[in-house]
Design goal:
By secondary structure, the protein is α+β, with helices and mostly antiparallel strands. It is built from 11 helices and 14 strands. Helix 5 packs across helix 9. The longest helix has 25 residues.
Length: 379
């Protein structure tokens, strides 16, 4: 019995030593890791000039300018994109933290490459704020997209041909804060959800499929092609129903008339772009950062071991609205911290939810849990 007690005391002592060491090393720190929000990848350049050196120099300048524009568009509302500032190469460089090059090819007069840029978060924030632009920087969890199309033969989701699904797959890389997951359509997907379940909005099947792709919300986008009564041409009618863990399903309707120089494929792709922009702007409006002043929230983090705290700490480093953290107290079962954050409390809760954490108000204090530890995961 004494031996068992001694071992328990030794374990507790070792754990306390680890906690104290962690406190000493990281009692206060600024959040520097901001994931991929301030990173722009795959900027393609192809420039021909008098010499390879001149071609490379011009390509890097063009790539840097394009990357900065994409960076600013990612954070701002679509209505402001045409008004975003443009700078010369020297000024643009001030916002770049570093860059890398891949797939580089050169000839005596030509330069081709893919460029990847990381920008300075505070410099980008200052630029937008000083220029009078509202912006958001919280990325969302992926939205699972289920494109249901209605040809003459009936509804299709997984079956081919499905030109509506093809249009979503051709959308390619999206630079925004909202990412989209298109299911593979393999046997696992087909056995989890059929087209009728998708159209009826069977939550259990939708949730199971969303979990497979680690998605937050799911949208069932139903499209059909028909006559446009206004022009006697063709049009695409779309209904989009969004299923969320936190709110009741919401349905929006969209009608896109086919233009004279468009094929049906072109119109479907344009419909995809309109939906993506709508969802992007909706997300950004919910998360616009107002004012430059930081707020402070005193937060308790329940833990059962050092690993729990290290996991939370790692997740916090990827929450862009959390700018700094002060550790106030650490014990065997909880850590008390002050979170310095931008925006409102609701926006902080939303941002934490995207990293699978739930910030709840309990007995006049804020408590931070893993999302799967509560009955209604936060998003």
């Amino acid at each position: 019995m004494e031996n068992t007690t001694g071992k328990k005391m030794e374990v507790r002592y070792t754990f306390l030593v680890c906690l104290i060491a962690t406190l000493v090393v990281s009692g206060t720190w600024s959040i520097k890791a901001v994931g991929q929000v301030f990173e722009i990848r795959d900027v393609k350049v192809d420039v021909t000039a008098d010499t390879a050196a001149k071609a490379r120099e011009e390509a890097l300048a063009r790539g840097e300018s394009e990357a900065l524009n994409r960076m600013l568009r990612r954070l701002t509302l679509s209505e402001d994109h045409a008004k975003l500032p443009k700078f010369n190469h020297k000024k643009t460089t001030e916002f770049v933290s570093d860059f890398s090059v891949s797939d580089e090819k050169t000839s005596s007069v030509r330069y081709l490459a893919r460029l990847h840029y990381r920008f300075k978060p505070n410099a980008i924030r200052g630029l937008l704020r000083d220029s009078g632009f509202q912006f958001a920087e919280t990325p969302s969890k992926p939205i699972l997209v289920l494109p249901v199309f209605q040809p003459a033969g009936g509804l299709v989701l997984w079956e081919a041909p499905n030109p509506w699904r093809d249009a979503w797959s051709r959308r390619g890389t999206i630079d925004g804060l909202v990412t989209f997951a298109l299911p593979l359509g393999d046997l696992a997907d087909i056995s989890t959800l059929n087209v009728n379940q998708a159209v009826r909005g069977e939550v259990a099947a939708l949730g199971k499929l969303a979990a497979r792709y680690r998605a937050g919300d799911t949208i069932v986008v139903y499209a059909r092609s028909g006559l446009d009564p206004a022009s006697s041409g063709r049009r695409i009618d779309v209904s989009m129903t969004r299923f969320s863990l936190l709110t009741d399903p919401e349905t929006d309707f969209l009608g896109i008339s086919q233009q004279e120089d468009e094929t049906e494929e072109d119109t479907l792709i344009r419909a995809v772009n309109l939906i993506v922009n709508q969802l992007e702007d909706s997300w950004k409006r919910r998360n616009l950062l107002v004012g430059g002043e930081l707020r402070v929230a005193a937060v308790t983090v329940p833990i059962s071991g050092l690993g729990d705290w290290l996991d939370v700490k790692m997740k916090l480093e990827n929450v862009t609205v959390v700018r700094a953290l002060n550790m106030v107290l650490m014990s065997l079962d909880e850590v008390r911290v002050n979170l310095h954050y931008a925006g409102g409390t609701g926006q902080l809760q939303t941002a934490l939810g995207q990293s699978d954490m739930a910030l709840l108000r309990e007995e006049n204090e804020w408590v931070l849990y893993p999302s799967d530890a509560i009955s209604a995961p936060s998003q």
